[in-house]
Write a structure and sequence with these properties.
Blueprint lengths: L9 E2 L12 E7 L7 H13 L5 E3 L13 H7 L7 H13 L2 E10 L2 E10 L2 E7 L7 H4 L9 E3 L4 E4 L8 H9 L4 E5 L7 H13 L2 E5 L4 E2 L6 E2 L5 E3 L5 E4 L6 E7 L8 E3 L2 E2 L12
Length: 286
């Protein structure tokens, strides 16, 4: 399939906070996977990441396989074990060469189940997996519900928490990651509902005082009688809810911003209020 020219890397100005001694470059890849062309999709993501430099990259949900499955046999054929699968191993190799960390959405095979998963890898190898807890629409036909806790991993410059696509609809997911220490919540996605995630991930950033990175895909898939249009507009949001960068609805690109992770460590709103310390958990149990 013919492709247009690669979109150049955008390096945004530093995040508008008082910087600490350690800053960090975080970025996402917004791309259009071709269904079933795993090696091609992996190579294309690596080309886009290779156009710039980031400490942490986030790739879309199911970035290597595509999204719209038509049969369980098709899902099983495209799913891979984690971390021994070829896609995870290739991402580890890239992370070692580029001295970066990568979060990427994959179809994971494990025993008799297939999960909509995400991996976190870095120069030291495989670090974490997360299996999507909140399955969206026909995902429930193809994937087993996630059975792993929401993970938070210290990657050196910051603590990174992982959620996937429809998890954004559930504030408990982001709050759980925050209570476990996440300073950056990464969000691989294949969004088809307009606007919602771009708004809710700003809300998740504000209510938890964290950075959020949504890596969405673009394009469409029409492998059944239902055409799926993916909405793009990947974004990075600050702990105060400011959109530091947002992509277009339809272009493939890699985007990086510089942040100060320390901005996600102070949860105070004023001398009297704190996002976490003011929680009244004794009233939340229903």
């Amino acid at each position: 399939m013919a492709r247009g020219p690669l979109i150049g890397l955008l390096i945004s100005p530093p995040c508008p906070f008082k910087l600490s001694f350690i800053t960090m470059h975080i970025g996402y890849v917004q791309m259009e996977p071709i269904f079933g062309e795993v090696e091609r999709n992996l190579h294309y993501a690596e080309v886009l990441m290779g156009k710039g430099k980031a400490d942490l990259w986030v790739l879309p949900e199911l970035f290597a396989t595509g999204y719209q499955f038509t049969a369980q046999e098709e899902v099983a054929a495209l799913a891979e074990p984690i971390p021994k699968g070829s896609t995870t191993q290739a991402l580890i190799s890239f992370a070692r060469k580029q001295l970066c960390h990568i979060v990427a959405g994959l179809a994971e095979s494990h025993e008799s189940n297939v999960y909509n998963s995400a991996v976190l890898v870095g120069p030291s190898g495989f670090l974490a997996r997360y299996r999507k807890v909140h399955l969206f629409s026909e995902e429930k036909r193809w994937f087993s519900p996630g059975d792993t806790p929401f993970p938070v991993v210290d990657v050196g410059e910051a603590k990174v928490g992982i959620m996937i696509c429809f998890d954004h609809f559930f504030p408990e997911a982001a709050r759980t990651l925050t209570l476990r220490g996440a300073e950056i919540i990464v969000h691989p996605a294949n969004l088809v509902m307009p606007v919602y995630a771009q708004l809710t991930m700003r809300a998740r950033a504000i209510e938890n005082g964290v950075f959020t990175v949504t890596a969405n895909r673009v394009g469409s898939e029409a492998r059944t009688d239902k055409t799926l249009h993916f909405t793009g507009e990947s974004q990075i949001v600050s702990p105060s809810g400011d959109v530091l960068v947002r992509s277009s609805k339809d272009k493939e690109e890699a985007t990086v911003v510089e942040i100060d992770p320390a901005a996600a460590r102070d949860k105070s709103l004023n001398p009297y209020n704190d996002r976490l310390a003011d929680r009244r958990v004794d009233f939340y149990d229903i």
